[in-house]
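User: quick one, fold this
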Amino acid sequence: MDDGRIDVVGIGNAIVDVIAQTTDRFLVDQGLQKGSMALIDEPRAHELYDLMGPAIEASGGSAANSMVGVASFGGTAAYIGKVRDDTLGHVFAHDMRASGVSFDVPAGPEGPATGRSLILVTPDAQRTMNTFLGISSLLQPSDVDAELVERGGILFCEGYLWDVESAKQSIRRAMDIARAAGNRVALTVSDSFCVERHYDEFVALVSGPVDILFANEAELAALYRCDFDTAVERVRSDVHVGCLTRGAEGSVLVSGDETAEVKAEPVVDVIDTTGAGDQYAAGTLYGLARGMSLADAGRLGSLAAAEVISHVGPRPQHPLKNFL
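Assistant:
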């Protein structure tokens, strides 16, 4: 943008996705909970990788995927995340920049390898993620570029980062910088298990520095411990904008007394739900950054989610700006 402003700055785990088709039996045999995200160590990552079938490798990470989506809409986006100075780290950085996202965090010269997520997709298109965070979890507060965060109209934070103390402090630093600059803070709670691991802190975040909340039904239930309708009313009083997804039933966006119910866009063949929430966030964030109504922003989110679940992989295959 001409004035140097950035629509959205994302901060999260810089991960390379390894995506393979599998069966429900494989999940059972490996003791994996379908539809969840589990953190694994490096030996387990190698073990699962060896057992997986043919796979597609692509740069991923929740907030990173969303920033690519924002850029695909024609928005300006930047990303803060940590990779190692290794082959996968170079691939990740190249993919982000080639997608139009600013990414300038220096690669780590030593330490754990670049993180990767082994994603198993069952015939019903559900994805089960097994994530080795690697060096991505060692993001430091010093990696947060204050000037970059100040330029972002919205700071988009990934809940997955909350599992490691240094990364948690990096998010807190970024939130403090954004709020001091008068920018909005958005949070995706990422996973219901993530909420349960850090329940008290997430409740404090949502009722505190967070302006825009992204959560699906399971995550909302974990956060508020009540039924969906009651949780929606609580969201109204906690954040400025709540973006609440319900899968095939679409989404509900709330802000004060305003409510927008957005239908899910029809998809002929659902191939892979990996990245659906990430791209929903991308479209909605782009719309909110550009001053659109709740309904229009939510519709962009639904369109982006529909595009990404129609193929394998968590990022758009076609320019999302075509939906504008």
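User: anything notable?
Assistant: The domain at 6-12+62-111+135-315 is CATH 3.40.1190.20 (UDP-N-acetylmuramoyl-L-alanine:D-glutamate ligase).
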